[in-house]
Design goal:
- The protein has 2 domains: 13-136 and 304-355, D-Maltodextrin-Binding Protein, domain 2; 142-267 and 388-424, D-Maltodextrin-Binding Protein, domain 2 (3-Layer(aba) Sandwich), CATH 3.40.190.
- It is globular and about 65 Å long.
- It has a 5-stranded mixed beta sheet with strand order 1-3-2-4-13.
- 41% of the residues lie in helices and 15% in strands.
- It is α/β, with parallel strands linked by helices.
- The two termini are 12 Å apart.
Length: 426
């Protein structure tokens, strides 16, 4: 199976039926075919946002009706699979991992000419030459955010190398400051240091590593990957995190860092958005890419997007039209830029065209996307050929928790290899 690496250039049964009933909303639209749209809600992307975006997109697809289904939690893939198992797979889905649904042939690819016409990286989300999510925006996952005042008070400079980073951790710990904030209660958020290490140390040296893993040429237990994960264990041993980090959820970790209870916070670039930081808070926060051993800049890059379309839809053509209209509506991306720190990747619209109000922290980090630098897949976060085998994301994220109590890196990575082989059919 052909897979290409990301380019260096410029976001059952009965139980599911009950969940569907509980999380559906009224329909919006005309008198024609009724299509289902699985969404999710956050403080920034609330019910009003989705309702308004649906109304706007329907102007481009007259005559159909949209029935909004809200995922009950952050695991949208799991909810979509529940709906599939009960024969209720949505016509249109927001922010899923396509690779989990391709083996069952459940998704409809977008037209390549449409992608080429509208996006800076039209193949940014391509899997085996087809794209199932429009590449509307991008993210850096993770950046390392830091408290400028804490750094100044402790005479610290932004680390240029990983050795410098470790020195900063040690000095902060000696000063009684928690060096790194960690949302350890939620593996996806707690894994940011691991994502940074795997992206910078592994993909920074071998951008084709994930493709080689699919082909059986490399393993997680090989020295390149194992050495990167040993650094994660060493950070735990060095007291880089609060001892209670595994009980801290994402919202609390955000609050802790903003309140100055910790000095650094590895997190996705969405943290630059106004739903996380006020302008005053953003002014005291800087950011740098996850540091490498030799000081080279490696950007863990993710091309994002929202809408996917079911190939089993009762009306595939209009589902595609709706998804396209939703994706091209600048008012939707404007909200994502301002509140969720999305970096636009639209061919016909630059940042100034959205009329956004963003912080200097946002514009400074956006430069990492537009600059000519080494960009690699954000490990475990992309929706293209470099996406991990189905189910492996969660197992990789979970290492961030297990490393606190189990320092046997070799044993845990050997298990991850076994899990990968089972998932990928190796």
């Amino acid at each position: 199976m052909k897979r290409s690496r990301i380019v260096s250039a410029l976001a059952l049964g009965a139980a599911a039926a009950v969940a569907l009933s509980a999380c559906s909303t009224g329909t919006t639209g005309g008198d024609g075919e009724s299509l289902t749209f699985m969404t999710f809600e956050t403080p920034a992307l609330d019910s009003t946002f989705w309702d308004n975006s649906i109304v706007a997109a329907l102007k481009e697809v007259p005559g159909i009706t949209i029935n909004k289904i809200v995922s009950p939690d952050a695991d949208r893939n799991a909810y979509a699979k529940q709906l599939q198992a009960s024969g209720q797979f949505p016509d249109i889905l927001s922010s899923i991992n396509p690779k989990d649904f391709l083996e069952a042939d459940l998704l409809e690819p977008f037209d390549q000419a449409w992608l080429d016409e509208n996006f800076l990286l039209p193949d940014g989300n391509a899997i085996d030459g087809a794209s199932y999510i429009p590449p509307t925006n991008s993210q850096v996952i993770p950046l390392v955010f830091y408290n400028k005042q804490i750094f100044a008070d402790n005479g610290l400079e932004v680390p240029a190398t990983y050795a410098d980073f470790v020195t900063v951790v040690e000095k902060l710990r000696a000063a009684g400051v928690t060096p790194i904030e960690m949302a350890g209660a939620e593996p996806w958020a707690g894994s940011m240091s691991l994502v940074g290490l795997a992206s910078a140390d592994v993909l920074g040296q071998d951008p084709d590593w994930i493709q080689k893993r699919y082909d059986g040429q490399v393993k997680f237990s090989d020295p390149l990957f194992a050495d990167a994960m040993q650094k994660a264990v060493d950070l735990v041993a060095a007291g880089a995190y609060d001892p209670a980090a595994l009980s801290v959820d994402f919202a609390t970790a955000n609050s802790n860092f903003i309140a100055g209870k910790s000095a650094m916070y590895p997190m996705g670039s969405w943290f630059t958005g106004s739903s996380y930081l006020t302008p005053e808070q953003a002014a005291n926060i800087g950011a740098f890419p996850w540091p490498t051993d030799d000081g080279s800049i490696v950007i863990p890059f993710n091309v994002g997007g929202t809408t996917s379309v079911s190939s089993q839809s009762k009306d595939v053509a209009n589902s595609v039209k709706f998804a396209q209209a939703w994706s091209l509506d600048p008012s939707n991306l404007k909200v994502l830029i301002e509140t969720d720190g999305a970096y636009p990747m639209m061919k016909k619209l630059g940042l100034s065209d959205f009329g956004v109000d963003v912080s200097d922290l946002y514009t400074d980090t956006y430069g990492l996307v537009t600059d000519d630098n080494t960009k690699v897949a954000s490990f475990g976060w992309v929706n293209n050929d470099n996406a991990l085998a189905p189910g492996i994301n969660d197992l990789f994220y979970a290492l961030s928790q297990s490393f606190f109590s189990n320092s046997d890196v070799a044993g845990q990575l050997a298990q991850l290899d076994s899990d990968w082989d089972a998932a990928a059919g190796n």
